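Quick start: load a record and inspect it. Here is PIHD3 protein:
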Amino acid sequence: FQVKSENKKTIWNTEEVPEGSEFDDTWDPREKPEYEISFKQHVGTEDVFFGMTGKDPSTACCEDIVIKIKLPETKYSDITLDIQDKVLDLRTPKKKLLLHLPYPVNSKEGRARFLSEEEILEVTLRVSRKFDLINFS
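Running the structure step on this input writes:
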């Protein structure tokens, strides 16, 4: 039995630990906020009228994931947001959300905006997809 790690005292490889597990804290007493996940795709007239690009309404053809998180009684300055390729980690003084994303995302390209009137944080993330017959652009 050989250990592939540089450190001989480790009992597992980094590939064996799922991404985002370092944020998973079951003993944290903070409440999990309500959230909603929706998908968004960019369509043009060639898609709507002619169906030329082969896009359909399924999530396999969507380019963006939009996550709306309800954060009542929260100020913008209290929000800490960390996004990795497969994990969204949100923390406020009263709420905590560790969300494993349904698709890998480009963590460098994303945007978040806080709608203070509705007390909602809206996070839009670009889905990272491999090229296939549907996703070729």
